[in-house]
């Protein structure tokens, strides 16, 4: 499948790499097909690109890279909806918020993107009764800009 993007140009994506979000993402319910674009293997950030709207792309990252102690239990309804039966099937990503000041870059820990890697089905799961917020800084306050290793 050819996917036209505003950031990466025209991508030739095998159907097997599409991730289906049956209900879309909050605010983008009409967009149900996405691909994960990873620029380089050692790069902490990747991009969740809509296959239907070329301008719709989210910067995402593995939240455990920035908050090693990040911990939550997926609701039973989400497990059923995503047809998840084992932890090996699960890919977790947090949406990154960036602004003009890179030091204020943050990750959303209250609503992770959860993907069943076997079935290629995804959902943004809003965690209930959690101490997490939509904006957790990913860089320390030091001038070196080092990545946080726990939270």
UniProtKB/TrEMBL annotation:
<dbReference type="GO" id="GO:0005737">
    <property type="term" value="C:cytoplasm"/>
</dbReference>
<comment type="similarity">
    <text>Belongs to the FliW family.</text>
</comment>
<dbReference type="InterPro" id="IPR024046">
    <property type="entry name" value="Flagellar_assmbl_FliW_dom_sf"/>
</dbReference>
<keyword id="KW-1005">Bacterial flagellum biogenesis</keyword>
<keyword id="KW-0966">Cell projection</keyword>
<keyword id="KW-0143">Chaperone</keyword>
<keyword id="KW-0810">Translation regulation</keyword>
<keyword id="KW-0963">Cytoplasm</keyword>
<dbReference type="GO" id="GO:0044780">
    <property type="term" value="P:bacterial-type flagellum assembly"/>
</dbReference>
<dbReference type="InterPro" id="IPR003775">
    <property type="entry name" value="Flagellar_assembly_factor_FliW"/>
</dbReference>
<comment type="function">
    <text>Acts as an anti-CsrA protein, binds CsrA and prevents it from repressing translation of its target genes, one of which is flagellin. Binds to flagellin and participates in the assembly of the flagellum.</text>
</comment>
<comment type="subunit">
    <text>Interacts with translational regulator CsrA and flagellin(s).</text>
</comment>
<dbReference type="GO" id="GO:0006417">
    <property type="term" value="P:regulation of translation"/>
</dbReference>
<keyword id="KW-0282">Flagellum</keyword>
<dbReference type="Pfam" id="PF02623">
    <property type="entry name" value="FliW"/>
</dbReference>
<protein>
    <recommendedName>
        <fullName>Flagellar assembly factor FliW</fullName>
    </recommendedName>
</protein>
<keyword id="KW-0969">Cilium</keyword>
């Amino acid at each position: 499948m050819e996917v036209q993007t505003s950031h990466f140009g025209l991508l030739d994506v095998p159907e097997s790499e599409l991730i289906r979000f049956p209900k879309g993402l909050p605010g983008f319910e009409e967009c149900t097909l996405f691909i994960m674009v990873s620029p380089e293997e050692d790069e902490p950030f990747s991009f969740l690109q809509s296959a239907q709207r070329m301008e719709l792309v989210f910067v995402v990252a593995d939240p455990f890279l920035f908050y090693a102690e990040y911990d939550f239990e997926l609701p039973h309804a989400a497990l059923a909806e995503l047809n998840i039966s084992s932890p090996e099937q699960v890919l977790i990503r947090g949406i990154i918020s960036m602004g003009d000041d890179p030091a204020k870059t943050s990750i959303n820990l209250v609503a992770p993107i959860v993907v069943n890697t076997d079935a290629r089905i995804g959902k943004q799961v809003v965690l209930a009764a959690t101490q997490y917020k939509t904006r957790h800084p990913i860089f320390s306050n030091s001038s070196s800009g080092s990545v946080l290793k726990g939270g």
